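Q: My collaborator sent me two sequences in one message, no labels, and asked for predicted structures for both. Can we handle them in order? The first one she listed is below.
A: Yes, handling them in the order given. First sequence, followed by its C-alpha cells:
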Amino acid sequence: MAKKRKKLRISILKRIALLFTISLILSSLLTVGIQYIYSLNEVQKQGTATAGIVGSTVKTALDYEGSIDALQEDEQYRVRIHDTLRHLCLGFGLRFISLYTIDKELNRHYIIIAANNQDDDARMNEDYGYESGNIYSVPLHNAEKNVLNGTSKQDFELISNQYGDIYLHISPITDQDDDIVALIGVGVDIDSIMKLAYEYLIHTFAQEMFVIGLTFLIALMLIRKMVIRPIKTLSWKMKHFVKDRDAEIYSPGRKTFFEDEVTDIEASFDEMAVDISEYVNDIEKLTMEKVQVGTQLDIARKIQCGIVPFEHGLSGNGYEVFGYEHPAREVGGDFYDIFNLDKDNVCIVVGDSSGKGISAALFMVMVKTTIRENLRMGSSLSETLNFVNGEICMANPENMFATVLAAKLNTKTGILTLANAGHTPPILLGRVPSYIDVDTGMALGIFDDADIKEEEITLKDGEGVLIYTDGVTETLNTEKVQYGERKLVEIIKKNYQQDGFSGAHILVHSIVDSVKRFSEGLEQFDDITCTAAIYKNNEMNSNYLTPEMESFKTVKQTILTSLGENEISRKILLACEEIFSNIVNYSEAGNVSFSCERIGNIYSVTFFDDGIPFDPVKTSVNKKEFEELDKGGIGLMMARKNSKEMIYNRIEDRNILTLKFDVTPLTEDYE
C-alpha cells in the first residue's frame, strides 16, 4: 500500500487572513483602477471648469476694456491684456492662454498668447504672437469646429505639439449679435492633471486602506475569539476524549452571551461525548461480562470434554467401539459413554438432552453420571434407565427430558442388549444395513412410569451397531434439505467390505465427514453424536492370547484397525512388541490378554498376564551393564522412549501394564 502523502497544514485563521489579503489586493487593484478613472475625470472636469472660469474672465475683461478690434489697434491695451492673461496662467496653474480669430479660410490669427513660464511665453509669442503676423493654416481641432458651428458652447481636446501633451479648452467670444468674433484657448498641462489625479488617488486609497485594514484586524480578532479559539478547544477535547474520558473534559461548556453555530457544535459535541461515554461504559461492561461468560463457557467446554471427549475409542479381544461428539455451541446436550463393564461386556450409552447450551449440558452430565454409576453397580439396562427416569421426574423444575439408548455387547458371545428411552432407533451394521426393531420407549423425565424394556439380538462376526443422535440425520444443507436416513445408510454401505467393516473409527469418521460436507456453508444447528461398535468373533480374536510371539499379530491388527498405517502407529507397535516380547520371554505367564482404548488425543494399550510380579515402571535400566540389557532391558527402554506414560498394577495375581501414547497429530489431521 502506497504511503499516504502528508498534507501541508495551514490553520483556518491563516487561511482566512490569506484569502482576505488576496481579496484585498484584488479589490485594491480594482479600486485603484476605478479611482484613477474617477480621479482623472474629476481633474479633467476641474480643469474644464477652470478653463471655463478663465475664459469667462477673459471675455468679461475684453467687454470691459474694449473689443477685439481695439486689441489689434492698441499696443498698450494688448500688453495690458497679455499681462492679465499671464497672471491668470500663474494663478490657476495653466500652461497658456491664447486669443485668436478664424478667417474664412479657417486659418488662425493669434492676437494674444500668454504662458505661465517666461521662456515659454517668449517662445510662444515669437512663434504665434501678433507682432509676427503669422497666420497658421493648420487644420482646426474638433473642439474648435464644435464651438464654431455651435455644437457646443465650449469644448476641450487633447493635443500634442512641440510644447508637450496639453488639454486645450476652447470657448468663444461673441459680439452683441452673438456672432463669434474670436476664440479663447486655455491650455492645461497633462502632467499637472495627472499629478493632481495621482495625489487625489493616493489620498483616497490611503484612507480606504486604513479603514479596510482596521476592519480586517478587528474581524480577525473577533474570528479568532468567537470561532478559532472555540474550534481549537473543541479539537483538543476531541483529541483527548478517549484518554481523558473519565475526567469529563467536555464539561462545563464555554460561557457566551449569545448562541451561534459554534456554540451549537460545542453543545452537540458535549452531548455526543456524554452519550459515547455511557455507550462505551455499557460496551465495556458487556464486553467484560461476555469475556467472563466466554471464560466460563471455555472452562465448561473443557470440563465437558473431560466428561464427554471429542472422540473416544475402545477395542479389545473380539470388539472395537468408537464414539464421536461435536456440540453446536461451546457446550451441548448430546453425550455418549463407552466403558468396560467387566472383562466380557462393553457398554455404549448415547443420549440427547432437550435444549442447548449450559442448561442442556448440566442436565446431560447428571443423566450420564447416574446411568454409568447404576450400570457399574450391576443394574441392568432397563433397570438403570427406569431408575434415572424416576430420579429426573422427582426433581425437574425446568421440565427437561433426555432421549437415551443404552447398549451392552458381550464380546465373547456377540449378544447385544438394547434399552431405548425415546431415542432414534439404532442401525444394524452388516452387509445390508437396517434399523433394529427395538421398543422405542419413553424419553427420560416425562412420565414416572416410563416402563422401559430391554431386548437382545446376537451379532454375527463382523456385524455391529450404529447409535447416533438426530443431529446427524436432521442436518440441513444450503437448500434446506435434511441429510436423512437414506444418505446415512449409503455411507454405511460404502464402508462395508467383504470381511466386514475395516474399523469402527473409520466408519464414524466417514459419516461425520459426509455430514460436514453436506452442510458446508451453514452454521452447525444441532449437536452431532455418533458411535459404532463392531463385533469380531474370529480365531485370531480369542479372549486370551497364547504367550507366543505369533499371537502379537492379533495386537498388531487391532492397533492398525484403530489408527491406520502411519508413523505414530508404527511407534506404538514397536513399544507394544517389546513389552509383549518381555512377557513371552521372561514373565513365565500362561495366559495373556490385552485391550485398546482411545480418549481424545490419548491412545492406551493395556496388557494382562498371570506371570511373576514385575513392575517395569520402577525398574531402572540405566544402571545395568551393557551385556545385561539384552535380558529385556533394551525392550523396556524402547517402550519407555516411544510411550507418553506407563502405569503398572498388580491385581488378583495378574500384571496389568498400561502404555499411553499421544496421537494428537492424527486428531489434527482429521479436524
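Q: And the one she listed second?
A: Here it is, processed independently of the first:
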Amino acid sequence: MTVKDIISGESEYLEFKQEVPKKSEIYMKTVVAFANGSGGKIVFGVEDNTCQVVGIHQEEAFSIMDGITSAICDSCTPMIVPIVTLASVEEKVVIVVNIMPGSQRPYYLTTKGKENGTYIRVSGTTRPADSFVLKELEFEGANRCFDQKYAAPEASVTEDEISHFCNKMYQYAAEHYRTEEAVERIRPLTKQKRKSTDKVRKSTDNITDNHKKIIQYVEERGAITNKEVRNLLNVKDSRALKILKELVAAGVLHKEGKLKGSYYKLK
C-alpha cells in the first residue's frame, strides 16, 4: 500500500475505512462483494471521503487484525478467509484486508441469507445483488466447482465437440437470464478465448495470477487499459506496463491506439 494508492481514492477494488466499526456488518458487505467479484482490499486507517491517512494505534493493531479475521470467517457463507496485513503509509500504521476472488459463489452474509445477504461491487460502491445477478453468481459457482471436481486431463475431445459444448453453455445462460441487460453481459466462449491462457503458459516460464486476472478481465469486457490494470492488480504504472508487455510478447494481447488512448485486446 503506497501514498499513490491512497491518493487515487476508492475504486471497484479498493475501499477505505477510518476505523474498524463496532458493527462488522458495515464492512462485511464489501468483503462479500469482493469475493463475488474480482477481489479487492479494505484499508482501515484511511478516511474515505478525504483519503487522509489517520492510522491505527500500533499497540492495538494485532488484536484488531485478529478480530477482523475472526469476524470475516464467522460472518460469511461460504467461509471467506482474508489475508490481513499491516502497512506503513506516511509514517502511520494501516491495516490492509485483502479478499481474493471466490470460487464457491455466491458469497453472502450468513445472518441475512443468500437472497438478502449477497452483495456485488459496482465501481466504488457495494450494492445488493438482484435476483438476476444472484442467478449469474450461482451459475459461475456451479461451473467452477464442476471444473475442479470433474476435470479429466487424459480425456480426448475434438474441436467441434468443444465448440458445441461452449455454444450450449451460452444458450443455457441466455435462456435463464430474462432481461436484455443480463443477456448482454454474457459473452460466447470462442476458440480465441479458450487458447489465451494456454498461450501464456507456453510462452512464459511461469504464468502468474496477475496474467490470469488480466486475461479474465479482457475476456469479460473485451479490452483493458493501463489504468484498469493498475486498479485491477493494485500496482504502480511501471509494473502494470511491464505485465502488459509480457502478455503482448507472449502473443496473448495486442495493443491498439496510441498514448493515453491505447488499450489491449486478445490477439
